[in-house]
Amino acid sequence: MQRKFAGIGAIVMLVAVALGAFGAHILEPQIGEKAIGTYETGVHYHMIHGIAMILAAFAAGLGLDQKRLLWANRLFLTGIILFSGSLYLLAVTGWKWFGPITPLGGVSFIVGWLMFALALLKKEK
C-alpha cells in the first residue's frame, strides 16, 4: 500500500510543478497579483505535502507503524485536495464560498503530520 502512496506522491508532485508553471506563465496576467498569491500558496502546500507523502511511504519501508503512516498519507492527500484545491479554485474563479473549505484541508494536514509524528515516535516492541 505504501508503494502505491509513494507513486501517488510522485504524481502529486508532477501536478504541483505543472500547476506552478501554469500559474507563473499563463495565469498570473489573467487573474492579477492578489489572486496569484492565493494560487501560489496552494502550490506551496501542494508541493510540501506531495513530498511528505513520499517520505511517509519510505518511512513505512523502515518498519515503522504502517497504520499511522497510511493515515498520514490519506490525510496529506485529502489536505491537498481540500486546501490547495480550494485555493486554486478561489484564485481562478474569485468565488468566496471556496474559502470555508480551505481550513478543512489545513486540519487534514495537521492531523496527517500528527499521524506521521506518532508513527516515528512509537516505541518498538
TrEMBL record:
<keyword id="KW-1133">Transmembrane helix</keyword>
<feature type="transmembrane region" description="Helical">
    <location>
        <begin position="47"/>
        <end position="64"/>
    </location>
</feature>
<protein>
    <submittedName>
        <fullName>Membrane protein</fullName>
    </submittedName>
</protein>
<dbReference type="Pfam" id="PF04241">
    <property type="entry name" value="DUF423"/>
</dbReference>
<dbReference type="InterPro" id="IPR006696">
    <property type="entry name" value="DUF423"/>
</dbReference>
<keyword id="KW-0812">Transmembrane</keyword>
<keyword id="KW-0472">Membrane</keyword>
<comment type="similarity">
    <text>Belongs to the UPF0382 family.</text>
</comment>
<feature type="transmembrane region" description="Helical">
    <location>
        <begin position="101"/>
        <end position="121"/>
    </location>
</feature>
<feature type="transmembrane region" description="Helical">
    <location>
        <begin position="76"/>
        <end position="95"/>
    </location>
</feature>
